[in-house]
Amino acid sequence: MINSSSGAGRGGADAYTDLSSVNAIRSLGRSDKNQALEKIAQQFESMMVQMMMKSMREANAAFSEGSMFSSPAGDMYEDMYDDQIALSLSQGRGLGVAEVMVRQLRQRFGEPQQKALDSSVGDYMQYKIPQQAMNVPAATRAVAASAQPQFDGSVEDFVDSLYPLAQQAAAKLGLSAEVLLAQSALETGWGKKISVDGTGQSSNNMFNIKADKRWSGASVQVNTVEFKSGVPVPERSSFRAYSDAQQSFDDYVAFLSDSPRYNRATNAGDSEQFVRELSDAGYATDPAYADKIIRIVNSAPLQQAVASAQLRSTGER
Question: Domain of 312?
């Protein structure tokens, strides 16, 4: 799994003096209950740590009585420092208290993991996934539906269908299979949004690699949206087309390995660094691309589906 940290922009606070964090959490709760519950738990853990540190300071107060280094101003700054330390300790995994609280709170107030995961992919789809259907007649769209791989849009079906391919490709890049599955899921909407050509033939492009001047194979022309200076802009682009998903995964490995642009990604020490280096190198224009992939990788549905696929793979040997 990939460990990711949360910042103030996602509903938390970087300083104990940030009194707007409660409103930020309330706003976050409207769009992502699970994320908001995580922030609430972190706030509670921060308060608990503050009380612990205050108790320790009071216990040691007797030793500083009459000391030349003790003063009201010094005590005030010491309290401020303790508050900031308490907040910092509660970020990330903290002491583990917030993590336990999150599990309990999500059982009562959270939204299902599958729903949260679909939301993450859905937000990306409205920008990244080609909107080719708008220019294709209804009859052609029917052909397109039957021509595409028969993914039902579920995590389990997607992982079951692609795990062996992801495992082989990931081994060549020194990564875990779930990282490639998560990226492909984000790019294709769990297999339901794979681009098709004008006749409805699936491109089998599992990573939405564009067909630039280096590509001499088949391609499809589709409408998409790219981010330019943080602003989504509609474009018509050419994407690579493959005979099957196997060819798509093979080309993905070659695409990254043969391009100096992605050297830092292919030489990354771990999966999170790979994803962030990939994003920094410009693989996608979405500024939140890496965070979305990491969120999918860390999700319970994907982890469970991968575990099941691994067991089946071991049993078949």
Answer: 113-316
Of the candidates 122, 125, 111, the one whose C-alpha atom is nearest the C-alpha of residue 35 is 111
pLDDT of residue 19: 46
Decide: residue 31, CB within 10 A, 0-12 exposed, 13-18 middle, 19+ buried: exposed
Scan for tokens 């040997």, then name that residue. Answer: 317
Tell me: do 50 and 69 sit in the same domain. yes
Task: Say if residues 224 and 215 touch (Cβ distance below 8 Å).
Answer: no
Q: Pick from 109, 128, 156: which residue ends a domain?
A: 109
Q: Residues 79, 99, 226, 291: which is the catalytic one?
A: 226
Instruction: Report which listed range, 18-22, 35-39, 43-47, 274-278, is most confident.
Output: 274-278
Residue 105 and residue 254 share a domain: no
Tell me the C-alpha distance between 201 and 42, whole Å.
Answer: 49
Rounded mean pLDDT, 195-218: 89
At residue 138, does pLDDT exceed 50?
Answer: no
Residue 80: strand, helix, or coil = helix
Give the pLDDT of residue 227.
75
Domain boundary among 109, 137, 166: 109
- Residue 48 in any domain: the answer is yes
Split at pLDDT 50, 70, 90, the class of 217 is very high
- Domain annotation covers residue 3: no
251 has catalytic annotation = yes
Q: Look at strands 219-228 and 231-240 and give their pairing.
A: antiparallel
Tell me the whole-structure pTM to 2 decimals.
0.58
Instruction: Report d(CA 271, CA 297) in Å as an integer.
Output: 10
Q: Does a structural domain hold residue 2?
A: no
pLDDT of 144 reads: 37
Residue tagged active-site, from 251, 272, 277, 286 = 251
Mean pLDDT, residues 186-204 taken together? 88
1 assigned to some structural domain: no
Q: 204 and 64 in one domain?
A: no
Is 258 one of the catalytic residues? no
Decide if pLDDT at 101 tops 90: no
